[in-house]
Amino acid sequence: MTSSKPLTAFGPDFTFAYDDWLAHPAGLGAVPRDSHGAQVAIIGAGAAGVIAAYELMKLGLRPVIYEASRFGGRLRSEVFDGTQDVIAEMGGMRFPISSASFYHYLNLMGLQTKPFPNPLTKAAGSTVIDLEGETLFARDLNDLPDMYREIAVAYSDALEQGVGFGELQAAIRDKDAARVKALWDPIVEAWDERTFYDFVTSSQAFQNLSFRHREVFGQVGFGTGGWDSDFPNSMLEILRVNLLGFDDDQRYVVGGVENVLRRLWTATPPCAHWPEGTSLASLHGGATRSRVTHISRAASDTSFTVRDQWDNEVAYEAVLATCQSHLLTTAIDVEEDLFAQPLWMALDRTRYMQAAKTFVMVDRPFWTDMDAATGRPVLSMTLTDRITRGTYFFDNGPDAPGVICLSYSWMTDALKLLPLSDEKRVDLALNALEKIYPGVDIASHIRGVPKCISWEADENFLGAFKGALPGHYRYNRRVYGHFMQADHSAAHRGMFLAGDSVSWTPAWVEGAVQTALNAVWGIMTHFGGASNAANPGPGDVYEDQGPVALSQ
Fold it and tell me: Quick one: which of 57, 356, 404, 534 has the fewest CB in 10 Å?
């Protein structure tokens, strides 16, 4: 029986209800009065860093954010020149409603969302699928050939037959921690070292279908588009996306998702210790600190020395690193003894996926014009095996400039574009789309300069998001649980980790938010604080509800 409760990101690895913890009137906890004002260095002004800083400020601590480049991290909303609110979402752009912790902050900041124009959704209006030169038009799944429905049914059957999907998702929906653990932990044991592609090809549901079915599944996928770039990943990565509804009911943030973090930066919540009207911005004098180049244990052995690119050194009683994990061994000189060697192993083995986007601004949403000959829109949300892979359209109103994401691609398809200029990327995309929509002159509508990104080319990110390979569960468990430091040696306490590199659900901002909240609990207890007994935090239940330990 399906539960009527809304689905939220509860587990499955750590069955803690972050949204309930955030909403409880008792708050997240408190630190002793003699720790008020203590400084905590936070490396990175992305979602994890800013949200952790916001909550630590409310506890009465003094977070000091360091940012190497641009405020916002992977929540990067680029405004097109000459406009105030026509934006390209260079990083995160789709936010499933199951991301309850993220929406807590989005709603707190008074931002609005709209349905994301994913394929075969009402928000997209219409979808074109172009594979091997064959072009199909559809408004929903029923408009496509039988093969597509067979693929959808096969994947649903494979999930049910392979992992008992319905029962497990119902337990997640009901926030039944014991039941989720009982069902999920054996799946971890069975599937950590097996790939997404293995799951598909070994399932009885797909074995009854042709290779062409599996090929189209990789190209078109489910929900948001093709998933063949994830075929080499651990199946656990994909199961989490499915179980938590991350590929369903997605929305985009009106005016740009970066505004969530910018509003948190200037927000003035009630805080312990700090006077009314205090904000992160005011604590920082209006600007973050610069790039961190060095972190070491201070001479006192109870604090840390953080040095920035201008050789300014400051002592902190705790440090939270939210940057991409590989930066801790490349861009930042981190004293090796701050982490145990098994943790260094886990950080270094973290694998990142590549992603590239190409956006243009156009004079108006001309794609909604109707072709007199076909009775269809002149352009539709497009999935293809051509170099563009995914093309999306964003309508800001009939008399306002619109935005086209000409191309969103991953892995090999993204690497094809890596050395190319923005103009060349646009040319390639327009040439590909011309073959799908002959005679439609997209270029005549383009205004201003394009917005393009390859995240792997950015020295501060080295990739778009984490993607765990088979056998990486043990590594992920080490870094995720590092905020639990009571059993650590004194030399390994006080430095914390958060962000996409630590999350069980990489590429989804909800995971970064949850790891930030773990770090808040860890830092709070590091200073002798605790959660309210009526509202226990993640560390209070971790022993019983934390990720299963696999044999070494």
Answer: 534
Rounded-to-integer distance, Cα 452 and Cα 406, Å? 10
Secondary structure (DSSP) of 202-246? HSHHHHTS-HHHHHHHHHH-SSSS--GGGTTSBHHHHHHHHHTTT
Residue 235 and residue 198 in contact, taking contact as beta carbons nearer than 8 Å: yes
Neighbours of 369 (CB within 10 A): 12
How far CA 435 is from CA of 95, 265, 279, 428, in Å, comes to 31, 46, 52, 11
| DSSP 3-state percent helix, strand, coil across the chain (nearest 5) | 35, 20, 45
Cite the DSSP H helix spans in 325-417.
Answer: 341-349, 411-415
CB atoms within 10 A of CB 301: 8
CA dihedral sign, ordered 418, 259, 266, 39: negative
Tokens 């003699």: give the residue. 34
Q: Which among 463, 466, 449 has a CA at the least distance from the CA of 415?
A: 463
Nearest to 394 by CA among 360, 431, 355, 440: 360
The enclosing H or E element of 517 equals helix 509-526
Q: What is the pLDDT of residues 287-328, one digit of tens each?
A: 999 999 999 998 877 799 999 999 999 999 999 999 999 999
What is the distance between the alpha carbons of residues 364 and 383, in angstroms, rounded to a whole number?
22
Cβ atoms of 319 and 307 within 8 Å: the answer is: no
CA dihedral 193→197→202→206, nearest 10 degrees, is: 160
| Distance of alpha carbon 74 from alpha carbon 31, whole angstroms | 31
pLDDT digits 0-9 by tens, 455-499:
999 999 999 999 999 999 999 999 999 999 999 999 999 999 999
Q: How far apart are CA 37 and CA 52, in angstroms?
A: 15
Beta bridge mates, 88? 78
- What span, in angstroms and rounded, lies between the C-alpha atoms of 205 and 151? 9
* C-beta of residue 46 within 8 angstroms of C-beta of residue 135: no
C-alpha–C-alpha distance, residues 339 and 434, integer Å:
53
